[in-house]
Amino acid sequence: MRFIRNIAFDIRNGIIRHFMLFLLPALITGIASADCVRRINGYLETWGVKKSTVTYGDIWCYLYCGMEKFVPAPGNAFRFPAIWTILFSICSIVVLTYTTNDMLGTGAHVMVAGGSRGKWWFSKVIWNVLSTIMYHGITLIVSLIVCIFSGIRIGNGINVGLQTSLNEIADMNSTFKTVSVITPVIFIMPVIISVAMNLLQQMLTLFISPGYAFICTGVLMMASVYILSPLLPFNYAMALRMSEMYEGGVKHMYGILCAVLIITLSVTVGYIRFLRYDIIKKEDI
Amino acid sequence: MNGIEIKELSKVIRKNMVLDGISMKMIPGRIYGFRGINGSGKTMLMRCIIGLIHATEGSVIIDGKVIGKDIEFPESIGFLLENPAFLDGYTGLQNLRMLTSLKGGMSDEELIKLLERVGLKDAAGKKYKKYSLGMKQRLGIAAAVMENPDILVLDEPTNALDTEGIECVKKIILEQKERGALIILSCHDTDILINLSDEIFRLENGKVVEHIKKGDNEDE
Fold first, then answer.
1. Positive/negative CA dihedral, A191, A24, A77, A217
2. In angstroms, rounded to a whole number, what is the distance separating the alpha carbons of residues A65 and A59?
3. Which of A61, A63, A98, A112 is at 20 to 30 A from B200, Cα to Cα?
4. β-pairing, B4-13 with B16-26?
5. Rounded to 5 degrees, what angle do the CA atoms A151, A157, A159 make?
6. What whole-number distance in Å separates Cα of residue B66 and Cα of residue B179?
7. Cα distance from A277 to chain B (closest Cα, Å)?
8. Are B177 and B149 in contact (CB under 8 A)?
9. Does A285 sit within 8 Å of B102, measured CB to CB?
10. Distance between CA B193 and CA B22 in Å, rounded?
């Protein structure tokens, strides 16, 4: 019962009372989706393509595609996936400081009243997962709204020509070769990876400051963008790096395994660490 | 509750010995005062008793149970550590309601009575962020004594309080003592500390350098 109360406290205090933070994904997605629609209209006009060939899948892909495999070569400049990076970075920021701030504030009372560090930690884990899902849920809803208002069909198809143009894809021989729809697994992978990486970040804040923890996940993100490797988790969060879309891409099964491993490790290591963690402000040391 | 026994308690943080071999026994119904300059280890000792930090060596035993080993936190404890921390967007009443709901809950009527006791009845519906420092301190004291805990840890409870506020806090502390609570108190105002405490420990560099019992003329 106390655990349920702990979770209720975190939902109320960490999500509802911080609803302003969750306006960030709405704002970013709203702007990015509107820009996507503008570019889609430009493409349709230029190439004389029917609007019916474009679906919501194209807007989703614009937000979550990331970038195709980068091959360093003369004339092939590194094209930074700005929207994708902003979406994931802001998500990390939204869940960055609540745990630390709470344990040094009201959360200390909640923890002592709950009688258990474990319950407090697991409550924060649940809060983190819910916040991340909510973040991506808002992204989904806002992009869907933009899609509906711009008269684009709701569907999971990808207009290959459009995406090639939008994402300036060079490797046409390998990209979009296998499928040209957003399959459920492609759709869900960014959320799973985001949950895993945010939990990793939460665990890291028990060892280093939240700022450094954010940098650590940021470095992993940048490394994933630069190098296509099954060992770099953010590769699984980029639609254009999935084997379903890119011939030499990463397999979603490995992505799920990778996420499960990171989640298990983060939650367990965090729990063990938190059992012996000194709750004390830096300035008091 | 039988009391608190602290055995050879030491705490090292980043190679600094913040508590150094502290031993003491405390029993219910008494007030234990802690004196010492900033950084002498008062707050660290309190944090150890609450269970917020772990001993490097030694132990804090409450009712035969070792903190951090047999239990994670004392079963019945109220505390106010340095600056009170509440939710800015909540009113004083909402903050207390939220805290009490975690343990079962006091009624709103009881909470209002409690706020009245600390002089915050009229500010019960005011948002915490609009409270003055003194009001925040009063709310912190209300939260600490809220459920009549067996152990009450008050670190500088008179901070930011006016004369009337200090008198109010003194009264509450004595009421809690009468009720049988074990009270651990630190206060920069020596007069208040001497006036309220049954025993006083003076800390210096994490060590107890002086232990005075009320009525004693000489150090133990």
1. negative
2. 10
3. A112
4. antiparallel
5. 80
6. 25
7. 7
8. no
9. no
10. 20
A-chain CB neighbours of B79 within 8 Å are 109, 112
Helix ranges restricted to H, chain A: 2-10, 23-47, 56-64, 82-94, 98-104, 106-114, 117-149, 160-166, 184-204, 210-226, 252-275
Residue A283 domain-assigned (yes or no): no
Instruction: State ipTM.
Output: 0.89
Q: Is residue A46 part of a domain?
A: yes
A280 to chain B, any CB pair closer than 8 A? The answer is: yes
Q: Alpha helix (H) ranges present in A52-104?
A: 56-64, 82-94, 98-104
Residue B12's DSSP bridge partners are: B17
Of A111, A112, A279, the CB nearest to B53: A279
The pTM of this model reads 0.90
Letter for the amino acid at A56?
Y
- What's the rounded Cα separation, in Å, for the pair A14 and A17? 6
Probe site for chain B from A106, A119, A276, A279 (most B CB atoms < 10 A)? A106
Closest partner CB to B87 (pick from A13, A112, A117): A13
Name the one residue in this structure whose structure tokens are 């809690």.
Answer: B176
Q: Does B79 touch chain A (CB under 8 A)?
A: yes
Residues of chain A with pLDDT below 50 are none
A-interface mutation test, from B52, B83, B99, B139, most A Cβ less than 10 A away? B52
pLDDT in tens, A61-86: 999 999 888 888 787 778 789 999 99
With an 8 Å Cβ cutoff, is A113 touching chain B? yes
Q: What is the pLDDT of residue A172?
A: 64
- Contact with chain B for residue A117, Cβ under 8 A: yes
CB contact at 8 A, B61 and B7: yes
Name the minimum distance, in Å, from the CA of B152 to any CA of chain A. Answer: 13
**A236 falls within a domain:** yes
Instruction: Specify the amino acid at residue A87.
Output: L
In a domain, A152, yes or no: yes
Strand bridging mode B57-62 / B151-155: unpaired
Domain count across chain A: 1
CA–CA dist A213, A207 (Å, integer): 9
* Domain around A205: 2-278
Using one digit for the tens of pLDDT, what is the confidence trace for A186-241? 999 999 999 999 999 999 999 999 999 999 999 999 999 999 999 999 999 999 89
